[in-house]
């Protein structure tokens, strides 16, 4: 054996130096802290620059109307996404059928396109010149320029979050547990409600959180399909165009407070569901 070969073997046998456990956690924490600072920093900069608005600022009619519109429509859109999105997520997670991949892609498509594009396609489906929108307007229930239009827009752009996360939750449920429930005499619906739904509830709650947050902050599709009335995001744009950043402070603070409150409550609910038997 040549000297070069023996030297190469000695180098290969040497243990590769590794970081200790504490150092490894430090690296991960630093990497995570960079993104956390980037996400939180702009909010802090906005509040430090503009401060909190006076309570009287929230009493202005335009501000109050925008807050009311968002607080009313976002929960309704989230409820609709949950009622119809959870069954769809279960079907996509558990069944195979022709066209499933295409349906899966179309369900996620709203996440991949700008919200304004969502508003344009919604106008084609529900605008006054469309068959559905024209019929609804004829019977006195217009689907645009009102709360219904806002809800339709919010549901369209936010529901995919619910479907994607719930589907992941259902896919993680052990199929043997569902088969055992069926062998004990439970039908498909009973198995869904007694086994699959409880086991996937953590993912479903996470999807509800994301859906509500997206619906509350929706701007583009809402502006095209539902405006007026003005929601908080659409009113923020109007205030910014007319008065700059300072004019948006009351609504930005209200939007942040509403979003943080509901997301925090839903997260606590999700944690309690995960630890409950």
Gross morphology: globular
CATH superfamily placement: MetI-like
CATH fold descriptor: MetI-like fold
What order do the SSEs take from the amino end to the carboxyl end, as H and E?
HHHHHHHHHHHHH
Please report the number of helical segments: 13
Oligomer: single chain
Class by alpha and beta content = mainly alpha
The name of the CATH architecture is Orthogonal Bundle
Our count of domains comes out at 1
The percentage of residues in β strands lies in under 5%
Our measurement of the CA-to-CA distance between the termini, rounded to an integer number of angstroms, reads 66 Å
Mean pLDDT: 85
Rg measurement, Å: 25 Å
Task: Describe what you observe in this structure.
The protein has 277 residues and is mostly helical. The chain has a single domain (62-275), classed as MetI-like (MetI-like fold, Orthogonal Bundle). It is 78% helix and 0% strand. The chain has helices at residues 3-13, 21-50, 61-94, 100-112, 115-126, 131-138, 147-171, 175-183, 188-199, 201-216, 220-225, 232-243, 249-275.
Secondary structure elements and their pairing?
Elements: H1 3-13, H2 21-50, H3 61-94, H4 100-112, H5 115-126, H6 131-138, H7 147-171, H8 175-183, H9 188-199, H10 201-216, H11 220-225, H12 232-243, H13 249-275
């Amino acid at each position: 054996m040549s000297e070069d070969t023996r030297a190469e073997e000695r180098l290969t046998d040497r243990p590769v130096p590794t970081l200790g456990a504490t150092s490894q956690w430090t690296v991960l924490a630093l990497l995570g802290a960079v993104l956390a600072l980037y996400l939180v920093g702009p909010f802090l900069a906005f509040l430090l620059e503009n401060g909190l608005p006076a309570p009287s600022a929230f009493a202005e009619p335009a501000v109050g109307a925008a807050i009311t519109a968002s607080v009313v429509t976002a929960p309704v859109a989230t409820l609709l996404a949950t009622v119809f999105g959870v069954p769809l997520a279960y079907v996509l997670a558990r069944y195979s059928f022709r066209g499933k991949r295409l349906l899966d892609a179309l369900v996620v498509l709203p996440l991949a396109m700008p919200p304004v594009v969502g508003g344009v396609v919604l106008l084609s489906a529900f605008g006054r010149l469309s068959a559905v929108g024209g019929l609804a307007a004829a019977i006195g229930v217009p689907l645009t320029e009102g709360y219904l239009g806002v809800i339709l827009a919010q549901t369209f752009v936010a529901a995919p979050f619910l479907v994607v996360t719930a589907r992941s939750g259902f896919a993680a449920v052990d199929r043997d547990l569902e088969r055992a429930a069926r062998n004990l005499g439970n039908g498909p619906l009973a198995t869904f409600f007694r086994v699959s739904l409880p086991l996937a509830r953590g993912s479903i709650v996470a999807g509800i959180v994301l859906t509500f947050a997206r619906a509350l902050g929706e701007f583009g599709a809402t502006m095209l399909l539902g405006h007026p009335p003005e929601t908080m995001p659409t009113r923020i744009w109007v205030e910014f165009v007319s008065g700059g950043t300072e004019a948006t402070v009351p609504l930005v603070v209200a939007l942040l407070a509403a979003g943080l409150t509901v997301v925090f409550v839903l997260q606590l609910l999700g944690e309690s569901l995960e630890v409950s038997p």
